UniProtKB/TrEMBL annotation:
Family the entry assigns: Belongs to the tRNA(Ile)-lysidine synthase family.
Primary subcellular site in the record, as a coarse category: cytoplasm
Protein task: Ligates lysine onto the cytidine present at position 34 of the AUA codon-specific tRNA(Ile) that contains the anticodon CAU, in an ATP-dependent manner. Cytidine is converted to lysidine, thus changing the amino acid specificity of the tRNA from methionine to isoleucine.
Comment, domains: The N-terminal region contains the highly conserved SGGXDS motif, predicted to be a P-loop motif involved in ATP binding.
Cytoplasm keyword on record: yes
Protein name, UniProt field: tRNA(Ile)-lysidine synthase
Location(s), subcellular: Cytoplasm
InterPro entries: Lysidine-tRNA-synth_C, Rossmann-like_a/b/a_fold, TilS/TtcA_N, tRNA_Ile_lys_synt, tRNA_Ile_lys_synt_N, tRNA_Ile_lys_synt_subst-bd
Origin species: Pleionea mediterranea
Gene Ontology terms describing biological process: tRNA modification
Gene: tilS
Positions of the Lysidine-tRNA(Ile) synthetase C-terminal domain: 380-452
A molecular-function term among this protein's GO annotations: tRNA(Ile)-lysidine synthase activity
A Pfam family assignment: ATP_bind_3
Gene3D superfamilies: 1.20.59.20, HUPs
Amino acid sequence: MPETLAQSLQTYIEQHQLGRFKRWWVAFSGGVDSSVLLHELSLLRPQFPGIELAAIYIHHGISDNADRWLQHCQHFCQQRNIVFQSISVELANTTRQGLEQRARQARWQAFAQLLDKQDCLWLGHHQDDQVETLMLNLFRGTGVKGAEAMKPLSRKQHYWVARPFLEHSKHSLKQAAEYYELSWVEDGSNNDEQLSRNYLRHQVLPAIEKNWPEVKQPLSRFSQHMQQTSRLLDELAEQDYQQVKVTLDPSWSKTFQTVIDSLSLTKLKTLSSDRLVNLLRYRMSTVADYLPSSEKLNEFARQIETATTDSNASLNWSDFRLQQSGEQLFIVTESDFQPTVCSKQWVQFPESLDVPELNLRLEAKASDKGIRAPTKDERVTIRTRVGGERCWPDYRNKSTSLKKIFQELDVPHWQRNKWPLVFYNNEMVGAVGLFYCKPFMVADTDLELPDVNISDVKPSDVNISDENSFFESQSKVKNYFELTSTRLKK
């Protein structure tokens, strides 16, 4: 039996080309499943000398035995010369069922913080786990995605997750553990039948197996069929996505990285209802593990089918939002809707300026178009909108309110209060990446003007020196600059 398990594991590694990773992290609880997996991988290390094998133990602090389990896992890894790391997580007080959910979320958050794109996370889930997951999802009225249960290999944010034992029973893993004379821990909470999975495991499945002893094998195959169906639906969704996606304005992609996706409302309406829902689910699943219910998603799709450019269709899920604005449907992070107030002097202009409040950096460089440099008496300030601002934008023949300009340029409403504006004293001279105010613009005959670009930076403190330092070096600085490398055409 262990030989069969080892051969299966090696075939799995070759099939999925897992030798390409730099590190293999095993989620190690000390239970029999992860113990067998970690031991088997340790035996394969000579075949993969360029890969570091490591184990990670998540200390939830739920059980009184958690510290003892931690010591067991440390000793297990020391015996095999395996890198070991433990991470403690804090869980809010809640119901027992809710506590299990919070613990699961905390584990995934810990994995995401630890692993990078060169890592593969290995989990010891087996066929019994697969069947339980499938049945629990079916009881909730799941669709194709839920009927997939767990995939043998899947992408999780920036790293990959491997589950090589999904076709092996719990019994076969115990046989392997006994053959290798492994020691493992038993979590008493697995017998708590107040938890849905445990009730299914100890009461429902044994009753079913009395009449259908081999029921787990066909149920496992059913999940494999659903995985194939899901791949076909994803291929169709990708084809539809290529037809409806909208390329983001370069200034938006630089200024607002939280805009994840943009879809054409008009083209979305050409899809059938089923294909529209399939496409939305496909794109949403690329950014979040948990999706809204089918009822909510179907209702949102109906709103899109009847939406006009004045509509405001919106759907929140996880930490993200589907938000319509005019002719486009955006996928954005929920944090993008949090108000941001910013007012920061650009004292050392034209040297770079970090604006942590907006997660931006402004820099000056030479260009042949732009706005004039500030005079000695003008303070340069980067601000966000407070209301009442007016400007004569470069694409118009008269002045108007900033609110009207944002509407004319189709700036999504949730971005308008975050957009960086440039002021000389109290007069607005432009909006970064969007427009200039004509009274401050450079004449077409002027040449060799500095330019301002923006790029994302991590928030950091900015050291401000004497504002007169700029004016003392005027002879070294050109007299004009441009706010971005791209401009709107008239």
